[in-house]
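Notes for week 9. Today we move from apo structures to complexes. The key idea is that a small molecule is not decoration. When we ask for a structure prediction with nicotinamide-adenine-dinucleotide present, the ligand SMILES becomes part of the input, just like the chain. The input block below holds both the sequence and the ligand string. Read it once before you look at the output, and try to guess where the molecule might sit.
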Amino acid sequence: MISFADEIKQGIPTALPAAKAWDPAINHAPKRKEILSPAEKKLAIANALRYFPKDQHAILAAEFAEELQTYGRIYMYRFMPEHPIFARSIDAYPGKSEQAKAIMLMIQNNLDHRVAQHPHELITYGGNGAVFQNWIQYRLVMQYLSEMTDEQTLVMYSGHPMGLFPSHSNAPRVVVTNGMMIPNYSKPDDWEKFNALGVTQYGQMTAGSYMYIGPQGIVHGTTITVLNAVRRLAKTRDDIKGKLFLTAGLGGMSGAQPKAGNIAGVISVTAEVNPKAARTRHEQGWVDEIISDLDVLVTRVKKAQASKEVVSIAYLGNVVDVWEKFDQTGVHVDLGSDQTSLHNPWAGGYYPAGLSFEQANDMMANDPENFKTYVQESLRRHAAAVNKHTAKGTYFFDYGNAFLLESSRAGGEVMAENHIDFKYPSYIQDILGPMCFDFGFGPFRWVCASGKPEDLEKTDAIACQVLETMMAESPTEIQQQMADNIQWIKGAQENKLVVGSQARILYADAEGRMRIAAAFNEAIANGEIGPVILGRDHHDVSGTDSPYRETSNIYDGSRFTADMAIQNVIGDSFRGATWVSIHNGGGVGWGEVINGGFGMLLDGSAQAQRNLTSMLHWDVNNGIARRNWARNENAVFAIKRAMEAEPLLKVTLPNLVDDQLLDGLF
Ligand SMILES: NC(=O)c1ccc[n+]([C@@H]2O[C@H](COP(=O)([O-])OP(=O)(O)OC[C@H]3O[C@@H](n4cnc5c(N)ncnc54)[C@H](O)[C@@H]3O)[C@@H](O)[C@H]2O)c1
């Protein structure tokens, strides 16, 4: 049997490995719809065969044609590696560049069976968030990374490694683009077509950028969101008790909702149609109970409300049925949201009411037009049921999954009276935008590359100490955020959030990120801990332009532009990032967003110290500057503070105009 290091260095095997059986125990991606014409199918096969010598073409052409017919994509299952995929200690990776090894570790984490949603289809989360399009790309990328030096950069075109190009030691080791399209070719069906052809992929955010850290990444953000949403209804911890939160989705990110509900201290009901997803979360301890009967659910929830329990319940079934049933039986819902994958409504992201899970899977592949009408009808019912609850006092917010966008497109009653805005806010408009992003607080994260839990524990302690010192000096405007983040990091070990690599997420502002990273770099230099990989979710202050999500609280008209995200990735790349990525379509859907991210290896060196200061400062203040220019009050405050702290920062500030002056003009 080939060793791990040898298989990595081998790249594309010269002799064909044995064909692999399809494993029914694994959670597989749904069959993608048939979209290619016969001529395009031939092109897809020819494209796939480019990786192989001619003498293998006859066997592989037939095999890939069958994969295309059966699954709608060519995954090249035969080439799945022998080695188990998970984040090893950085020392276990073969290679000449520590930075490249760090990237291998992160790629393997994204494809770990415990972490990835559909590991055999190379999908990390969100139903279509791909690391690579096929297994040959995985093999080739790992080989390139194992042979590259710090004088080269690997260029990634939507999963395909274009190759190694000469660069320099402080250049990014990898530059990733995913799904970048000519704007007119960015409709959902364009993704279906060009992905089936093998020339692009949907990288989501942290999937195609190798920065996913399992559901923990999202638990923190979800906790902040649920906590602040419930704070709108209840001021004290005691008032929060007994409040009911109704939502849907126990998948990649959505699976964090019940855990966040428990941390925030509410009763949560999360509907999930896929039994495998619900059971996985239950077995992981992320949701307390599973109920599959609506009457039993009503009785259980009423009991929990009466006794003010903190409990998370998964309902195995369609969320539309729950909203309707709770309305009919008088269950009062305090908070409501939805995290079905509506960024991908026609291909498995949203299961319509009135069809079983199996019927829906069959119809979306074999009768996609009919499936679409079911989805639209279900969305209209969904919106109508939510409206009945909000009329009774429920606070409903869109969770950035395009629920309001797709409901409106389906004709659901979700528009405000001005016919421009939605009736309900997005979680960014009301919560994360003004309270976090405008001040620079966002989902900073790190991974201990040694793979040692004790390193993670030490980094938690270092980060906590930095935040406590900072809190003592912080202005009142950000005291609540600092307190929430300190509480989070203190409880992080106890909450057992690690799935996969030894990773931690911690919301922090620019100063916090820089001070924590500098303290890590010092601890590495002193030999207290091994190397640390820094990163963040793309869902952040500066990385993402997304008019219905990250930048939905930008009101100067610029939310439909993407200058900020593009500037951000360019700026990160020449300020010392180890790798950078820019994507079309993460989160809310193909064509709806541009988002970028970075990874940075800290090795205790003086160069790492210079890089972290320069890059993290830019990576947060770019977005604050833009939010300030959009006249967001908290961002104006934050950027003025940043300018006081750094004399080389000089940002254009907006002048506010008197509304009365404008009233008379037109
Ligand atoms: N958690 C966050 O902080 C966050 C932030 C922004 C956006 N989002 C968005 O939330 C969505 C979900 O992300 P994910 O990674 O969990 O996706 P996912 O596809 O892994 O999970 C969604 C789950 O919803 C279930 N589902 C679909 N339709 C349903 C229905 N009608 N009733 C009940 N269950 C249904 C699916 O079976 C699936 O398990 C995405 O659109 C994502 O962009 C999440």
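The mean pLDDT is 95.
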